[in-house]
Amino acid sequence: MHEIAVNEKILAANDAIAAANRRFFESRRIFAVNVISSPGSGKTSLIEAAARRLGPRLPMAVVEGDMTTELDAERIGRCGVAARQITTGRACHLDAHMISHVLDWVGSLEGLRLLIIENVGNMVCPAGYDLGEAAKIAVMSVAEGDDKPLKYPALFAASPVLVINKTDLLGHTDFDMDRAEENARAVNPEIRILRTSCRTGEGLERWCAFLEGNALAPEDSSTR
C-alpha cells in the first residue's frame, strides 16, 4: 500500500508540471508529440525523415531523450533542425520536470510550430508519464512481435497514432501485419496506423503529413 501511495504522489506531481508544459505549448501554438517505442524500432530514423522533409518549410525542433550520450541529437542536428538532448542517467523515461527545463530553449525558437520529443527506448514507463504533449505516438517495427499491443496495452491505448516501421524487413520475419493491426485496434479501436520504411520511403509522406497537418491546424482542432 505504501508503494502505491508513493507512486500516485509521484504521478500527481508529474501531472501538475505536465499541465504547465501543455499550457506553454498551447499558448504558443506548438504541436508537441511524444514518440515512444522499444529500443531499435527506428524512431530516430523516422524523426530524421521528418526533419529532412519538413524542416525546410515548417519551423520545428526535436528533444531527444536517452540514458547516455548525445548521439541522437547530433544526428537530428545534421538534418538542419534545432535539437536538444536530455540525458536521463538511470531513469528509463522522460518526465514532465525534465521537459520543463528545456522550455526556455523551446521558447527562444522563433515561430516554432512542431516539437518532436523522442522518449527513452522503453514501452512501459514512458506510457505512464504525461510530458504535456498534444499526442503520444507509438512506434513498433516488424522486427518485433506482432503481439506488442497486447503486451503493452497502456501505450497503445494512450496513442492516437501507431507507426509500424521497417516494413522493408517483412519478408525476413514472421511478423503478421494484419494481426498486429488487429491487436492494436483491440486495445484502441480509434488508433490510426501508418506503415513506414525509412529505407524504401514507404509511408513517410503520410507520416510527415500527419505531423505537418496538426502543426498547421486551426487552434481549436483536435489531433487528426
Helices and strands: which structural class?
alpha/beta
CATH class: Alpha Beta
Sheet with most strands: 7 strands, parallel
Quaternary organization: single chain
CATH topology: Rossmann fold
**Widest sheet: strand ordering:** 3-2-4-1-5-6-7
N/C terminus separation = 40 Å
Helix and strand arrangement:
Layout: H1 2-27, E1 31-36, H2 43-54, E2 60-66, H3 71-77, E3 82-87, H4 96-100, H5 103-107, E4 114-118, E5 135-141, H6 148-151, H7 153-158, E6 161-165, H8 177-187, E7 192-195, H9 204-215
Parallel strand pairs: 1-4, 1-5, 2-3, 2-4, 5-6, 6-7
Helix pairs in contact: 2-9
What is the gist of this entry?
By secondary structure, the protein is α/β, with parallel strands linked by helices. Helices cover 39% and strands 18% of the residues.
If you had to describe this structure to a student in words, what would you say it looks like?
The structure is a single chain. By secondary structure, this protein is α/β, with parallel strands linked by helices. The protein has a single domain (2-215), classed as 3-Layer(aba) Sandwich (Rossmann fold). It contains nine helices and seven strands, in the order αβαβαβααββααβαβα. The chain has helices at residues 2-27, 43-54, 71-77, 96-100, 103-107, 148-151, 153-158, 177-187, 204-215; strands spanning 31-36, 60-66, 82-87, 114-118, 135-141, 161-165, 192-195. The chain has a seven-stranded parallel β-sheet with strand order 3-2-4-1-5-6-7. Helix 2 (43-54) packs across helix 9 (204-215). The chain is globular, with a radius of gyration of 17 Å.
